[in-house]
Amino acid sequence: MRRGRKNRQENTRKTSAVKPGMPGGRYRPLTQPDEQQVHRTILDVLENIGMGDPIPIVKEQALERGCFINEHGRLCFPRAFVEDSIANAPRNARLFGRDPKHDIDVGDNRVHNYGGGEAVNMLDVGASSYRPSTLDDLYDTARLVDRMDNIHALARLVVPTEIQDQFACDINSAYVSAAGTLKHTQLTFADASHVQPTLEMLYMIAGGKEKFHERPFCNSGGCPVISPLRYGQDNSEVCVESIKFGAPIWVTVAPQAGATAPAALAGAVVQSVAEALAGMLMVHVVDPGTPVVLGPWPFVSDLRTGSFTGGSGEEALVSAAAVQMINYYGLPSSVGAGMTDSKLPDCQAGYEKALAIALAAQAGCNDVSECSGMLGSLMALSLESMVIDNDLLGAVLRTVRGIEVNEETLSYKVMEQVVHGEGHYLRAQQTLDLMRTEYEYPALADRLAPGEWEAAGSPDIRQQAGERVKSILSSHYPEYIDPAIDAKIRERFPILLNPDNMHPGNSRW
Amino acid sequence: MTDQFDDEEIILSELPDDELVDQMHDDLYDGLAEEITEGTQILLDRGWSAQQVLTEALVGGMAVVGIDFRDGVLFVPEVLMAANAMKAGMAKLKPLLVETGVKPAGKMVIGTVKGDIHDIGKNLVGMMMEGAGFEVIDLGINIDADTYIEAIEEHQADFLGMSALLTTTMPYMKVVIDQMKEKGIRDKYKVLVGGAPLNEEFGQAVGADAYCRDAATAVDAARELLAATG
At what angle do helices A265-286 and A56-64 cross, to 10 degrees? Predict the structure, then answer.
């Protein structure tokens, strides 16, 4: 084959300077003595204040292992027990994609980006007001995530609010996720009884129970803590039932500084990490072998109004500190970042998202969640924002990758050659070798010269993003569920996604 | 030079009525429950009616708190301290008001819906309502339709307040309202709903009288609904 043609063919493959799972951990808002003080206080909290309202199976198993009920009737975890549990907990785990190229290895400082957010509203392309989100929207987010290189896994980005029945809501969410993407999907259940039937549907999609459990492409978990320091029954039951997935359990807690967590930021970090550990302990007294992805998500209140602010500098800071503590324990971590308070994909959204996501990623978070498309303090999702965020995530990952320093990259010889030769680097072999792998290129960010930009009609990024969304969603209708299996699934389960909306040419896009 | 604003120097019982009322407005603003209790007692001892103390000293003071909260001068924790001080004064006035047949501004039964055990937002609304002079019966969390309905009937409430934080529990509000309709008592009460995932459209869809995006809005909505019904 002629070299030119070979190059042309290879160049059609997109190359990138970043990849999933690059190590973060350079940003550490807590000093080493701070870390130890936070840790000691966490142990004090779990040992003395303890957790309220454990579900019976957890209470029973915990008491058998040396935990105790204090004079206030709360379940307390002795510090030695907590330290042993942390030391023995699985430190690394794989979240499988349906295609192995999407596998994610959580643990250490490896950085990945997650969808997720459970918004109840959509901001339509070009719109300036919200509407309730639907199952079709969730399907769209799955298809879009499937095509976003820097969003490595999916969680429920929007809630299908038109479905009243909770079981139907949960199983349809799982169905449209599997129909829309081959990336790993984190599921949510309102009730433990929804887990088994959903698993049975996933077995059908995977081609059998054993096939699924070889590579479980979905996991589950929940938010089992009602802050401050009290277990919530329904989500505790879901977490325990989710052990059946044979996949890591996600445990997220979201105490809000100033309202359901201390206003002092250090206290908010202590409580959120203590609660996340309490979630892990709850799973591990039932089954110590199941990996848990710990999600201490310290939220922040705007104390002028009492409402949640996801876009603040404090939010970015405490989230990074929470990640630092989970990394101190060497456990898999998750944190919410990119939870802007802005209602639109605008300047405010851009700076708030960039700050929080950058700090979380730099802190070495395994699952940076809520980082794609969320707006309005997690109340809404915008598909335009999702594709913009994909660029943002690429740029953040590039900063995570850092600068490789070695004799070759220090480039002394190249400088010498260029200075004595052509006088510029544009045609240097090093430039050719590195132009696609040293630099990350955004799909949407405008880098035109001002004149070119004006000639193009002075587009702004939201317009460009809307075009990209339409182009992807009107054409990307993958057949990730075999049609024969799909028919069987629809016979057996109350699947509500209109099959007509799963092909090009429907009225939606 | 001594600080002329030093709290120690103010002896409430030595102030004439008008200065005492002004001072109580300041003390409400600063959330000083003990001082409000004391001031309330002094005014009563001077022969003020409970109704007059309530309107001029307490509600008048809370109005300033409300305005400064709306304008972003006061923060939520400060407003809650003020509401707490108001409540302390109310504790003195309530038996007298009942005796003289004066009704509270309005009565509200409040609770977080079935399946939901998040209560911070609901508590905030309860405190703000009390601060505005409403009587609040707080049922707590995880409340089913029967319990709500029993409580509004028993207490002859003006308002039913329902709160939900979870998207999975908010539809239960409709269940409660539908059950009120079935029993033919829906129109006897004003229903206020709130919680992070809710919005105006949801409020209308479930048939509530008002969606309240925050605690201050809840107080305003309750006042407006009362005024509208006379």
Answer: 80
